[in-house]
Amino acid sequence: AQRVTQPEKLLSVFKGAPVELKCNYSYSGSPELFWYVQYSRQRLQLLLRHISRESIKGFTADLNKGETSFHLKKPFAQEEDSAMYYCALSGKINYGQNFVFGPGTRLSVLP
Amino acid sequence: DTGVSQDPRHKITKRGQNVTFRCDPISEHNRLYWYRQTLGQGPEFLTYFQNEAQLEKSRLLSDRFSAERPKGSFSTLEIQRTEQGDSAMYLCASSFTAGGRTGELFFGEGSRLTVL
User: Fold this and answer.
1) Would an 8 Å CB–CB cutoff place B45 in contact with chain A?
2) What is the mean pLDDT of each run of 10 residues along chain B (116 residues)?
3) In whole angstroms, what is the distance from residue B72 CA to residue B59 CA?
4) What is the rounded average pLDDT for all residues in chain A?
5) Is residue B104 classed exposed, middle or buried when 0-12, 13-18 and 19+ CB atoms within 10 A define those classes?
């Protein structure tokens, strides 16, 4: 079955510290992996996707197929990074394509 | 285009009543998704449409839930005989997907359902 796990419900770091939000997945094919973010009182929005290989707002994520992981990293956290972060997987599930989301990690960046 | 819009934003109902939510996607998007989210959880997939065709429905979805997208534009999600366990945020998202490349999901602000 397709599944996304995020082991940390809450992650607190100080401003300027590195941050890593963990994501592991199970999928039998070649998935596409995404990170979505929800800032306070805003709707869910895409942060980055693995095929783009971009750095967005200083965040990067590398797909490790051997470890089935897609961890989100930022070298120097900022207070405005405080938000809920969801890892998501898209793959050919049944006869269509679907998105499966992890339970989310709340990142709190302390001053 | 103001993005994905959902109506109503909040709905309070008594157990046993029927409720209907509406989602208006971004106009050129061909896919529309419904998710449910409860406190402390990520969005849980309910169903999705490609144009007007409902391509997948979660096995977790009971027969009390039905969704339509009659002309491939807006969609409705109806819950019949609501139960307290149906209380959640119902999220709609849309995307444009073509040529095998998965489109980014654009989410609405959600419709919060409270069943008393």
Assistant:
1) yes
2) 90 97 94 92 91 86 92 94 96 86 88 97
3) 23
4) 90
5) middle
